[in-house]
Amino acid sequence: MIHVERLCKSFLDYQRGWVFAVRDVSFDCRPGEIFGLLGPNGAGKTTTLRILSTVLKPTAGHAIVAGHDVVAEPQAVRSSIGYMSASTGIYDRMSAWELVEYFGRLYGLHPERLRERMEIIFDWLKMNDFRETLGSKMSTGMKQKVSIARTIVHDPPVLIFDEPTSGLDVLVQRVVLQKILELRDMGKTILFSTHAMHEVQKLCQRVAIIHQGELQVAGEPHELLKRFDQPDLEELFFHLVDRADQETAMAEPASDRPAGARKIRSPDQPDLPSLPTEDETDS
Known about the structure:
The protein is α/β, with parallel strands linked by helices. The protein has helices spanning 45-52, 74-80, 96-106, 111-124, 140-152, 170-185, 197-203, 221-228, 233-251; strands at 2-13, 17-29, 34-38, 60-65, 68-69, 81-85, 158-162, 189-194, 206-211, 214-219, 263-264. The chain has a 6-stranded mixed beta sheet, sandwiched between helices. The protein has a 5-stranded antiparallel beta sheet with strand order 5-4-1-2-11. The longest helix has 19 residues, at 233-251. Mean pLDDT is 87; it is low at 257-283.
């Protein structure tokens, strides 16, 4: 349902030149599973998800979402996905019902189909008690439910959640995670990014760990723990991050570059038209 192959994204920094945010990332997210993208802040998770949701274009590599190429068929991809993050905004002057209806209309749903979907969703998320509440009067938990509702109103086969529980209290976190599990049980394909190990353990059938814009490892959690002889996901995560940092330090002395930066050749150079060379990432 999601196929990512050697995905790269570089940006021009006027002090450091071309730098990678994502470099050579490949993974597959199968139909009906929750695939976890795990990494620290600045690892490249959000950049990857923005490429998959067509907000950004990749520098190199390609990605297929629900059978559609993210570069060649962006509109088809947008119609096939729902995207939600912890920073998803809610309009203060719209009620819960008005906001979800607005997004349903943006997706081109027929009025009768839209009302049917909204009734189902408001019942499922237990939103009927505040369907007329304005965004400015909503609690954090209400806002997250509205965010979920607008993400799924068009019934997309693929859902992308970018750290959807970040900054939420434990009770709201629990509700969000439970609803994501229920969406999986409905047959949705879900890509879920986080830096919280307990969320991965609770939700994900498979996981990829990304650091400094590069994929460190991907697979089933129990298989990865066995392969690297680690007791839990947290220790596995620290082991892989430390290993990557050590390899980076050995490959290029820190005095040669700013901390955390991977300077690369411009993609416009004639000998490498699509993929810059020298690495490191600022992600």
